[in-house]
Structure formats: structure tokens, C-alpha cells
Amino acid sequence: MEFAILLITILFVSLFQIAVPFFVKRTVVFGVTIPYEEARHPKVMHYKKLYAIITAIVSLIAITGFFIWNQDTTLGETKLVLIGSLIPFVILITGLTLYFYFHYKMTKLKKEQKWFGEIKQVRVADLEARSKDEMLASTFHLIPAVISVTLIILSMNLFDQLPNQIPTHWGPDGTPDAFTDKSWLSVLSLPIISLVFQFMFFGINLFTKQSGIKINAGNVKSSKLRQLRLRKYTSWFLFLTNILMTLLFAFLQLNLLYEDLFSGSLLLLVPFGFTAIILAGALILAIKVGSVDSDFEGKVIDDQSANSKTESVDEDKYWKGGLIYFNPNDPSIFVEKRFGIGWTLNFANPIGYFVVLVPIALILILSFSI
Amino acid sequence: MLSLNNDSDIPLYSQLSTQIMESIVRGDLSTGDTLPSVRVLAGDLGVNMHTVNKSYHELESKGIIEIVPKKGAVIKANEQKISAKRIEILSEEFRPIVVEALVNGMKKEEIHQIITNIIIKIKKED
Predict the structure, then answer these.
(1) B113 to chain A, minimum CA–CA distance in Å?
(2) CB proximity list for A234: less than 8 A, separation 6 or greater
(3) Do A124 and B43 touch (CB under 8 A)?
(4) pLDDT tens digits, residue range A249-266?
(5) Which residues have C-beta within 8 Å of that of residue B68, sequence separation ≥ 6?
(6) CA-to-CA distance for A267 and A331, rounded, in angstroms?
(7) ipTM of predicted assembly, 2 dp
(8) Mean pLDDT to the nearest integer, A37-61
(9) Tens digit of pLDDT for each residue in A174-191?
(10) Measured between CA atoms, how close is B2 to chain A, in angstroms?
(11) Could you state, in order of their start, the residue ranges of all structural domains in chain A?
(12) Is B47 within 8 Å of A120 when comparing Cβ atoms?
């Protein structure tokens, strides 16, 4: 069971990492902005292919190694799980290292070729785009908060009846193997953490909605469609995550309040099932967003309304290392990631820190203080 | 579609005002429509909020939009837009350009032609 779950996760991470350069926007190659007409430049395609081949080889070696380790019965289950959990990070770090190498190569190529030299650079906005925005309402994220609050009240009522030792960790067969002393914090921490998560998701959705719908003047049609899809599907994915996380925390809390409520196998199956749903959701998101305005779309420009050569303003100077966005002029708090699918913070905006980093810090403090 | 040229000598806020007015002329925006909030439009364009704010205030002073509390920037009805005073200001603004054309020997008809061409271009764009 553990082997299968870990293998699926490793395969998923590998495939995702290999495909990244092909499903990101085709005008941003390894974090470097290029004009649409250069998206198929032979050197650009060569770098992307090279990246994919090297990442694929590393992933293949890691997966083969994992199979061999699995055959080795002397290794023991905990060690196998540890190795299996480390492999995705090895693949991610490989991808990141290659990213930086090709980011450097692309920066050099862009300079040599003097791209953007004669192209008119404009900033565009579509006043109708907002009416086509299909993001979920932010208040959706507060609905699951009802469950968390109910659990807090329930736990407070049952506090006196609870045993003096509260389980904090469960073994592979679902029996608790670590305990902590009963206190208000240890009894209430799970629903409080889920409440913090719900407010964080609410904030992320709210500020993503207010962030700019970035359209590229070089290909208005595709770039707009991609932005709208990114907004729609990430907000649904965030809501799915919210629901599953709330259910998982509620499940664990009920298990804490009423001993033997759930069987051991159920305790194991629920987290695995939720991981599988999240992975499937991420896959759908990646396909829906990654198939538009990327190399997967096929034709470079199908929109001929732009008669003269125009492109959007090259904003590379605001992207540190091509990964970290720092633009004090842009009031957007979340912007589309340059290497991957999803959003990244505008680090020049303090509201962003407040929306994401404060809740995470709070959650970490709560989980470590138990 | 609003489009601002980064390399132009015309300041961004002024370009934005012109672009919004062009959208009204073309019929992309009509009376009673609400413009996006300053934060939202600045985010879409990736420009400073002051730029959008300045443009909205310029449009308000020109009588093109009305800034309604809680509702935002609303496009005013056509008939109530231009006052005699505004026409006077407009003709003052036209004057130096007309003078420059005349001093270069352009004829009245040629100037009329230029203006007609500009009108056709604005209405055709997009």
C-alpha cells in the first residue's frame, strides 16, 4: 500500500517536472521573456528538450532505484517510506538546478539576439475580461468553517470526559503510538488549525480575484483564455483542497473525541484517498491551464487582429532569478507563476505576506506547541 | 481593449484617459457602465494605482465619468457631457495644433481631412 502510494506520487512529480517547460506560457522560457515569434526558435526548443531529457533520466534512475530498494526485504518499512518520500525532493531539486542553468543560458541568448529590439512594447487590459471571470466567490471558503466551529464547541463540551492522554500520532495499523497531556491547546488545536486554513484560503481567493488579469498584447486571445482558466480552475482546486482538508481534520478530531469511532483501516484509507483526489485535481488543473498559450497549443498565433508587431512590456527586471516577483508598481498580490502552474506572490506587496505567511506561521506554531 | 505604449512621451495616465474615451466612442463602453476599480485596472495593466487614479480624476474633470461613492467610476450620459465652457477649453487646446498646421502651409480642407481620417480610424479600431 505505502509502496504504491509513494510510487504514484514519485511518478506524478517526475512527469510534472519533466513537462514544466512545455506547459508554461511559451513567451516565458526558463523565466526569461521572449517575443511570440521566437517561441519556436531552434535554440529555445533545444534547451527545453535537453531539460526534459535530463530530468527524465534522473527520474528513471530514481524510480528504478526505488523498485530495487523495495525488493530488498532487509531494509524495513520505515526506511523504504523515508527513501520514497525523499525521491520527489531529489527530482524537484534536479529540476530547479537545471532551471537555473537554462535560465542563465536563455538570458545570454536573449541578449545576443537582441530580442524586443524593434518591437513596440505595450500594456494592455481588457475591460470585458472581468465579466468573463469565473472564479468562485471567496465566501465559499467560509462555509467549511461552520464545521470547524462546531467541532470546537463540541470539543469544549466533551473536554472533562476526555482521557488525560491525547493521541498525537498513529502507527501504520491505525493504533496511536504517541501521546500528549490533555490541555485546551492539545484538544482544540486540530479544529483551530483548520479554521486558520479556511481563513487563509478565503484571503487567497479574495486577493487573487482582485489581482490583475494579465493579457499579452502579442496574442490577446490565447493569453486571455489562459488567465481566465487559471483563475477559474485554481479557485475550484483551492475549494476542493479546503473541503478535503476540513473533512480530514474533522475526521481526526472526532477520532480524538470518541475513541474507537473509526476502524484502523479507515484511519489509513482516508488520508490516502484524499491524497489521490488532490493529485487527480492537480492533474486536471495542469491540463486545463497548461494546454492553452503553451507549446501544447500548437499554432503560435491564431489571432491576426494585431496588425503591427506589438508585444507586452518585458517585465523580466521585476522577476528575481525568473522566479520571485517583486514589483512595487503592480497592486496585484498574486501573479501567474513563471515555472509551474499556479500563482506566486508579488513580494513587493506587504498584504501578500499577511495573507499567506502569517497563517502558515500560526499553523506551524500551533502544530509544534502540542 | 486598452493599450498603453510604454515608450511614448505621452504620460501613461493621459494615454489611459484617451483609451477609455476611445472605448466610449467605439461603443465598447456606454452610458451607465462602471469602470473597474483603480486597484483592479492597475493590476490588469501592471501600472501604479496613482496612474489609474490620476486618469479617472482627469476624466471626471472633463465630465466624461462620474465618481459615485460605493459604485465607482460611472460613464456619464452623452447629452450632459459637454458644456459651453468645455467647448471653449477644447478649442483652446485645438488652437496651437491648428496654428502649427497653418504655419506649415496646410489648407483648411487638408486639416479637415486629417480630422476626418482620425475619426474613421478611432471608430474602426479593435
Answers:
(1) 24
(2) A208, A285, A289, A342, A343
(3) no
(4) 898 888 888 876 777 677
(5) B74
(6) 44
(7) 0.82
(8) 93
(9) 667 778 888 888 888 889
(10) 5
(11) 1-113, 128-370
(12) no
